[in-house]
């Protein structure tokens, strides 16, 4: 999984974002207990204005980091807090976009 992250970083640097996404998603699907894949996916999806996938990944990261925190891994709590904050912002953005869309339809 770490190797996948390293390869995905290379793909990102080469501008091959879809290949990087595929590798990061693989780690996510396996429930990898490291933050890099989730951070990068959330950022990539945010930059692509793909709010639903950003939210999906942040929710997955929160589930993973809740387990990490219960395992008493010291890095768990601050990362869990950070993912929750990012999710809150993404949900707020989604809500704002829905309101804008609704007002345009009137």
List keywords for this structure.
mainly alpha; 106 residues; 82% helix
Could you write a compact summary of the structure shown?
The protein is mainly alpha-helical. It contains five helices and no strands. Helix 2 crosses helix 3 (36-47) and helix 4 packs antiparallel against helix 5 (76-105).
Structural features, described:
The chain is mostly helical and 106 residues long. It contains five helices and no strands. The protein has helices at residues 2-13, 17-29, 36-47, 51-70, 76-105. α2 (17-29) crosses α3 and α4 packs antiparallel against α5. The chain is flat, with a radius of gyration of 15 Å.
Give helix and strand order, one letter per element, not per position: HHHHH
Ends: how far apart? 48 Å
Structure summary, number of beta strands:
0
Largest sheet: none
Q: In one word, what is the shape?
A: flat
Radius of gyration in whole Å, from Cα? Answer: 15 Å
What portion of residues is helical? over 70%
Tally of helical runs: 5
Strand and helix map with partners:
Elements: H1 2-13, H2 17-29, H3 36-47, H4 51-70, H5 76-105
Helix pairs in contact: 1-2, 2-3, 3-4, 4-5
